[in-house]
């Protein structure tokens, strides 16, 4: 079975031999890949919606992996008992949804040894949540697939110092390692912020708001970082 580059980068961050819960599994591609390559021992594949849940069930049955992959329907970490999984993956969702999932089952989140997240938006909010909730970012990757750039973050329980504010946006380890896709990533962030500021520029009230100032400062910090590359 071949998986795309994005899921491959996520798979590469999953420790060998663990039980992993893939929350929002959709077709269960990740657990099927990890189990069929003997990378992990067991998996829980959870999804909130009936369609993806059934896709996952069918895919796991077709791969004859029902004994090792438990497909469950439910909201976020509701499908995982405390201590049941060491690693949780939450990929392909918005950052606020990811935080909501982690926050709403603290008794499960507290027993995890590794968290791997791939937020589609609001990655900076996810990093801030991790840093202020006892998670240390240990690995970050950028992957380009079908012309789109994805950020993947792995964290483990541990204390860390607050970051220079703009590094919540960029990713501290992507910056530190000067990831090969870093320039493209920063340019995407700049284009996005310019778009937001241009949209706000139509309203005098918006231009004088604290949000506008905050976005303008962020844009300047990103442009400064770009010149350092
Ligand atoms: C875009 S798919 C991502 C699938 C896969 N994780 C990936 O990265 O390729 C998002 C999936 O998350 C599921 N989902 C969204 N919110 C969820 C929640 N609170 N709990 C469980 N699943 C959720 C959706 O039903 C959908 O199947």
TrEMBL record:
A single GO molecular-function term is: tRNA (adenine(22)-N1)-methyltransferase activity
The biological process GO terms on file are: methylation
Q: Which UniProt key words apply to this protein?
A: Methyltransferase, Transferase
Checking SUPFAM superfamilies in the record gives: S-adenosyl-L-methionine-dependent methyltransferases (SSF53335)
What domain of life? Bacteria
Q: Name one Pfam family in it.
A: Methyltransf_18
Does this UniProt record's set of keywords contain 4Fe-4S? no
What does the record give as EC number?
Answer: 2.1.1.217
- Protein name (Swiss-Prot/TrEMBL): tRNA (Adenine(22)-N(1))-methyltransferase
């Amino acid at each position: 079975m071949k998986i795309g580059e994005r899921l491959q980068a996520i798979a590469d961050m999953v420790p060998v031999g663990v039980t992993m819960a893939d929350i929002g599994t959709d077709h269960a591609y990740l657990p099927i890949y990890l189990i069929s390559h003997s990378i992990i021992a067991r998996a829980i594949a959870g999804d909130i919606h009936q369609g993806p849940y059934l896709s996952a069930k069918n895919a796991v049955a077709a791969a004859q992996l029902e004994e090792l992959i438990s497909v469950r329907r439910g909201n976020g970490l509701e499908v995982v008992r405390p201590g049941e999984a060491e690693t949780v993956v939450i990929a392909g969702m918005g950052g606020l949804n990811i935080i909501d999932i982690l926050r709403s089952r603290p008794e499960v989140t507290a027993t995890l040894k590794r968290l791997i997240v791939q937020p589609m938006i609001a990655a900076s909010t996810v990093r801030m949540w991790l840093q202020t909730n006892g998670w240390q970012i240990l690995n970050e990757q950028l992957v380009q697939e079908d012309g789109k750039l994805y950020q993947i973050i792995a964290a483990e329980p541990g204390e860390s110092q607050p970051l220079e504010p703009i590094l919540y946006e960029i990713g501290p380890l992507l910056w530190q390692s000067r990831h090969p896709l870093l320039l493209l990533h920063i340019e995407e962030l700049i284009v996005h912020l310019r778009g937001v500021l241009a949209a706000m520029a139509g309203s005098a009230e918006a231009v004088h708001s604290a949000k506008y100032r905050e976005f303008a400062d962020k844009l300047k910090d990103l442009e400064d970082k770009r010149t350092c590359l």
